[in-house]
User: What shape does this take?
Amino acid sequence: MNRSRRRLAIGVLVGLLVVGGCSAAENPAARMNIEVVGTRPHDRQAFTQGLEVDGDILYEGTGLAGASSVRASRLTTGEELAKAELPAPYFGEGITLAGATLWQLTWRDGVAIARDPATLAERGRARYDGEGWGLCSGDGRLVMSDGTDRLTFRDPVTFAATGTVTLTSWNNARLNELECAADGSVYANDWPTDTILRIDPESGQVLAAIDATGLLPATARAGADVLNGIAQLPGTDRFLITGKNWPTMFEVRFTPVRGRDRTRRHGARVNAQRGSTPELEV
Assistant: This one.
């Protein structure tokens, strides 16, 4: 092989390797910020574990053993419509509305409670293995997190597991509260950080990392715990976001990072747990 042919062959080989490597590599997640559209009061006693909006009804599930509940209130006025306490020692976790059932997870008890969406009365229970963290409903199925970088799909009627997907990046994420968005993606709090991940549930690809740093002002952080609670407002591009024992619920949009902001490190995982023990922050 002469020198020119050798150079051509090497060039083709390098090109194939580069193309192959790019196709196999995970596309980097888009970086996004939060635009606050409005605010509304939030119960500082609510150790928020899940939010869900259905029409003009806001459902909220809270945690802590002996203090867990699920409540329904009027979205526009805040009027409480129904509330159900979860008896000790159950520790309430994520909630979601699936058809005619409101499902509520428990943390380490392996029990999911099926409730009537209007009265919040218990109608049945289902068992599952492992821990329960976040829960959402979309595309005819439930999506559940367990504090790892894996999502589990479940039947919305029986709660039986039907499959799983693991993130293809952000592999140390601890996925917590979930929201199944209208576009088919899943939004997840990455506990205990101020990062929200937007995930393709079919592939496990992280599509965006949303930086919520500073959403709750430092002056309001006394007694507040971590970010937790995401609910899309139906028919809009806006979301409600709050946290455990936060005094405020924020109505927000997620906006692309532009210009010099791209050089910032958004969504960095943090080690600080804001003064609370991991046992109480799930």
